[in-house]
Amino acid sequence: MAKVSVIGAGSWGTALSLLLFGNGHDVTLWSIMEQEVEMLKEKREHLSKLPGVKLPEEMKITTDLEGSIRGADLLVLAVPSPFTRSTAHAMAPYVKEGQIIVNVAKGIEEETLMTLTDIIEEEIPACRAAVLSGPSHAEEVGRGLPTTVVAGARDRETAEFIQNIFMNQVFRVYTSPDMLGIELGGALKNVIALAAGIADGLGYGDNTKAALITRGIAEMSRLGLAMGGRMETFNGLSGIGDLIVTCASVHSRNRKAGYLMGQGKTMKEAMDEVKMVVEGVYSAKAAVALARKYRIEIPIIEQVNAVLFEDKPAREAVNELMLRDKKIENPLLPWD
């Protein structure tokens, strides 16, 4: 049994705390919000973000950040990506040398273009940072439905430690050394999912969705490879796997926000209606900035940015994608 603290009591943090408790670990669930903690203690359920998923009475729920961190064998950082830096900064004084922090959020910081584990390492130099990602909606993990993810770390020992902590008969964990590729896949697929949702909101069909997923993974891979990620990662769980589920699932907040925008709502109206952090919105500008830095073409992500931040009509954005210059699908394939 390990002592594990989950930092962040949103839908994903709550689902993972239940999973870890079921694996026999001593679990503490932390939230910065007193009202949220009181609701979880009283109802043993996150009424707004994960309704119907009950938390056991024995699980500790607290606002005491220092107490959550001291003595923990593993810290699971589950706050939404825009709050990763501020939360890591608050955690830093209490983290001991070599303490493992596994990030489970998905995003790129707009101002610095840093991945979330890079932020954690900058704010908490003493820690060993890692990442857990893949096609894994909280609503399904909380109900114990079969799910498969990948744990990335800079050394095999850390990745295997995380694998052993999380893995059970319904939650399968692979390991990988490609932390950068895992994080980029998790962040960029959210932007493509916004595009998929926009297409659904416009009333387009399965052909359109398949095109966005396929060309989306091409954009993610081009940028990721230029930055140092591995193609095997983008072809795996945190790349194409997470992209498929986020573009297609009714649980996807990114797809839902895109759907609402496709129906004519503004970005703010869509985010207000989703009522949870739509992480693709925060990663979209960063993705365009990275593409310009590395001189990579990402037309889908660029059009999503135009819809989000330049009030471009969604239908016009799709039309521009369809009317781009003629291309070869894969320039690396030779003609006979």
Structure write-up:
By secondary structure, this protein is an alpha/beta fold. 51% of the residues lie in helices and 14% in strands. It has helices at 11-22, 34-43, 65-69, 84-91, 116-123, 138-141, 156-166, 179-201, 206-227, 231-234, 237-248, 253-262, 267-274, 279-294, 299-309, 314-322; strands at residues 3-7, 26-30, 45-46, 50-54, 60-62, 74-77, 100-103, 128-133, 147-153, 171-176. Helix 8 (179-201) packs across helix 15. The protein is globular, with a radius of gyration of 20 Å.
Question: What tags apply to this protein structure?
Answer:
single chain, 336 residues, alpha/beta, two-stranded antiparallel ribbon, 16 helices, 14% strand
Summarize the structure.
The chain is α/β, with parallel strands linked by helices.
What is the averaged pLDDT score? Answer: 94
Strand arrangement, major sheet: 5-2-1-6-7-8-9-10
Structural class: alpha/beta
Number of helical segments with 4 or more residues:
16
Topology:
Layout: E1 3-7, H1 11-22, E2 26-30, H2 34-43, E3 45-46, E4 50-54, E5 60-62, H3 65-69, E6 74-77, H4 84-91, E7 100-103, H5 116-123, E8 128-133, H6 138-141, E9 147-153, H7 156-166, E10 171-176, H8 179-201, H9 206-227, H10 231-234, H11 237-248, H12 253-262, H13 267-274, H14 279-294, H15 299-309, H16 314-322
Parallel strand pairs: 1-2, 1-6, 2-5, 6-7, 7-8, 9-10
Antiparallel strand pairs: 3-4, 8-9
